[in-house]
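[[Per-residue structure]]
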Amino acid sequence: MNAIGRVSCVSLLLVIALALSTGFSAAAQGTFRVAMFEAVALDPAAIEADSEIAIVNAVYDYLIDIGPDGTIVPRLATSWTISPDGLAYTFTLASGIRFHDGSPLLPGDVQWTFDRLRDPALGFDTTSLYANIDRIEVSAPLQVTFHLKKTNPFFLFDLTDNRAVVVKRGTEDFSTFNGTGPYIVDSYRPGERIDFQANPDYFVIGLPLLEKLEFIFFRDQVSAVDALLGNQVDMVWRIPISLFESLREEDGIATIDVPTNAFDLVRFRMDQEPGNDPRVLQALKHATDREAILQAVQLGYGGVGNDTPVGPMFTQLHDETIQPLAFDRDEARRLLADAGYSDGLSLDLYAPNSGSRPLLAQALKAQWAEVGVDVNLNIVPESFYWSEEGWLEVNLGITNWGSRPYPQFYLTQMFTCDSTWNESRFCNEAFDRLVSLAGSTADQDELVATYSQIQRILAEEGPVLILYFWPQVAAYREVFAGVELKAFAGRTDFRTVYMP
């Protein structure tokens, strides 16, 4: 096992030992109820919302996972090796793993899962993410090997993608929830809730620590917080900072916030008017007071953004010398006039009803009104915003992007010409060449220099406003312990939550 794997196993053993030392019995006990928005997608290859990711994370397992500190840790694979040329990654699976239907996990299940995710004929959003895989082979009874077309220093992180849980070979009906994961679905009522019970045969000895886990769906966050205060749920997350602040002094409630690289992104579609005129987007950037928005929307939590997703948490790759366009209303008015909107501009702005997105939309409406831009707000349910008719199609939208442990994901999935989630329709061939270089070079100095060029293009010519990076926040009842919130909320590990 590699060093990272050893650290992960030690961490899990410490959690189990702590639970035992505080009176936890050998059998899992307690029911932990989590408030979240409704889940829609059940096929792991199609999930997007945090609630869907949380369900998948409970029912299935990843080949390898991301720890709370953003490092790679084992899950189904106990160890892995990389060939000297960087083109072959071989993973050894833990023995004795079974799906919930009793069938054994085989390397062929891993092979089938990733072949499915990368198959262009199936049209999943993961196709481009795994396009660099040349082939996958079962290389031993408990081993699977990925062969790459070219080197990729971020490949291990690619394998931890939210949708990359291992499913049983040949699965067609995902409503059966047949995974290898720590929890077995007991009942599912679409639009209402999903209830789990502990998997008694889970391959990680001692986990999970809960007897039952329940995800209860709410339509708004105020109701979810009221349910926490009324002892109807045990945890809320992804709530506006104002609601989070209101819970900090509540007796019996623990609050937690963790820094992340998550951000709310504002963008036009560049293939439609008025987003196809760079002067309009530049005008809106000049019309936006970022510091005022950070204070009004985030109450100062997080940090100001510079219109690139390579945030300060990526200390080696973030270029702090690159600054966004200055707040300048006169320049904004001049640019709008040059673009033909001297008499004003009317825009429809779409945003999901989760987190601080509605507050950000209202703040932008107020600030842009000062330069003659009239914004009509369309605050829609998160499930609708993430639908096929939502975020990728609307002309002007606010999209929340969760924190990833490596920045290359954002570049390849959001900004390259053929990227699946290119919601702005941005396309710059020179930019694409830089992204390709960053994703293949083994030279650290070249990587840093390339990332600096990438950030400069996005800040000066890019299609988006990234105004701030927000922390992940949650609140839970203090009768529980072992809650370790992850930067990407849906990936939070409920295996280690317990009732002392």
About this structure: The domain at 260-471 is CATH 3.10.105.10 (Dipeptide-binding Protein; domain 3).
